């Protein structure tokens, strides 16, 4: 079953409800030429985490009535980060008109893999000065990021991300954060920023189960046709 076949089968499945107005298709990663039951199950944890993060981003955009284009920075070109970079425009664009996605990582190899789904990559070289990295990232994002999804969660990436986050922006971080980190509350309040913890939600699991259900149904139909 090809990605094109899968997209056709999910034509009427939308994140915002079963209406054409909320056309947000739940699609598999296009970097996989063929989506199978095995590849879907291997990515279950990452896909559900990404769905949870993007659903949290969706709620934040709706609550704050962000009508214009949104800039999203994804920290970490790991599996979760790459999936998020691909899914974000599909799942959020109808809310804002356009989602400009950037992905940052210290690994050239991971960024090269990320370029398959996101052309705007930023190298956070370990040899580069911290302020230089912040300024480079803000420049690439044309001033800063409205939403930041951190899939690494070290004190360094968190503190760096908070310097890049725009006024009124939201920083989303998952359960894999490695340790405690100090946050300047005065700056957070003055900039009207939010920190949102991302955990697995029943809504995200439901979306994943729907994806898996379609794969099972399609596989059974394919076997029936062969017989």
Describe this protein with a few key phrases.
oxidoreductase, six-stranded parallel beta sheet, Zn_alcohol_dh, alpha/beta, 49% helix, 227 residues, Rossmann fold
Helices and strands, with pairings:
Elements: H1 3-9, H2 37-42, H3 44-64, E1 70-75, H4 79-96, E2 99-105, H5 108-114, E3 121-123, H6 130-140, E4 145-150, H7 155-164, E5 165-173, H8 185-190, E6 194-197, H9 202-226
Structure description:
- By secondary structure, the chain is of the alpha/beta class.
- The protein has a single domain (3-226), classed as NAD(P)-binding Rossmann-like Domain (Rossmann fold, 3-Layer(aba) Sandwich), CATH 3.40.50.
- 49% of the residues lie in helices and 15% in strands.
- The chain contains 9 helices and 6 strands, in the order αααβαβαβαβαβαβα.
- It has helices at 3-9, 37-42, 44-64, 79-96, 108-114, 130-140, 155-164, 185-190, 202-226, and strands at residues 70-75, 99-105, 121-123, 145-150, 165-173, 194-197.
- Strands 3-2-1-4-5-6 form a 6-stranded parallel sheet, sandwiched between helices.
- Helix 5 (108-114) links the parallel strand 2 (99-105) and strand 3.
- The longest helix is centred in the last third of the chain and has 25 residues, at 202-226.
- The chain is globular and about 50 Å long.
